[in-house]
Amino acid sequence: MPTYSYVIRDPSGRREESLVRASDLDAAISLLKGKGGTILSVREAKKETALKKTALGDQVALFFYRLRTRVPLEILVFFTRQLSTMFSAGLTLEKSIVGLQYEEKNRRFRKVLGRLSVDIKKGFSLSDALEKHPGVFSPMYVALVKAGEISGNLHTILEDLSDYIEALADTRRKVFSAMSYPLFVFIFLVIMLIGIFVFVIPMFREVYAKLGAQLPGPTRMLMGASQAISQNFLSACGITLLVLISLWLLAMTDRGRFIFDRLLLAFPVLGSLLKNAIMNKFSKTFGVLIGSGVPIMEAISLSQRVVGNKVIERGLSQARGLIKDGFSISNALKKTMVFPAILLQLIATGEETGEMDRLLNKAAIFYEKQVDAIVDRLTSLIEPILIVIIGVVIGSIIITIYLPVFYLGAALRRGL
Prior knowledge:
Blueprint: E1 3-9, E2 15-21, H1 25-33, E3 38-44, H2 56-69, H3 73-88, H4 93-103, H5 107-121, H6 126-130, H7 139-151, H8 154-211, H9 217-231, H10 233-252, H11 254-266, H12 270-291, H13 296-306, H14 310-324, H15 329-335, H16 341-353, H17 356-415
Antiparallel strand pairs: 1-2, 1-3
Helix pairs in contact: 3-4, 3-8, 4-5, 7-8, 8-9, 8-12, 8-17, 10-11, 11-12, 12-13, 12-17, 13-14, 14-15, 15-16, 16-17
């Protein structure tokens, strides 16, 4: 007799999660209805699967597959919201998706919608059809749709899902806007330095060679560096490209990605920004999953796949093991030493009151405000700091180049 995992909310509003044995799914639902309360989800219990280590070749192939098949989050938000509206208005899933396919302007996503409508015609459930397109629909997206199908609240879950994706896109945009300006300035500075070393300094070297004067030590060092870069420019570009590719491949491995992510979290200011953005994403994801009736262990496993940081992923993996051994969620997360105290307190309160999804949503709002505050602080401070850095670097090079001119002027004045 198969075993089914279920999540129900009892008459007092507390969440209950356990297993029940029944001949089939309908029998399991009938048994649970006898207990009273609201059934959030019922599904056949499967052996839990942790995140497996993937070979480097598979990681690279998956990266390019997602790059080739991904669609902008804005399109996914619009699709999810429209599907929820059309489905709640009484249209079938097949008609809703066909209608959205005709209106869709993005050619890549239109093809995906065409395949979805074909699969639904063949008898696939929406979640099974979505699962065939991992580059477009994340595991969490598929899991929430499946929870909506089982609980009968698909249109409500789709509406919540569209709000979630929209908030996620907004947080990602804020983080990107905070990091894009310094990255642009850094690239601009590197290009400017290459231009000075390859084109400007060699002209001064020829002038100083004709004078035959002894150059100051800093100028000789600068001229030597310029000569080395000019003579080996293509080799230096090739080596730089190889180093960047090597770092990218290293970041594709589990250990390499863990090292990079730990360094990013330890970076001043930007590390705090990233951690708050990750906590916002985790709180939002975990809260939506719990509120939709997804079992705790599966919710943590799905959250691992969307946080986008190996340090937090490893912490969640440890927490899953501790919860399996009988620890509460808040204590399990606390023992990993990667989650902030405020989030842990809210989760502990949610476990006591049975309102974890609501409190996780409060945590997500709190961390979103933290992200906004850091972004505002960065944008007000980073521009003058970068201007000073550029001024110091370029000014130092110009002074070093013109040092012989100053020396020559002083020598002429002594001669006179």
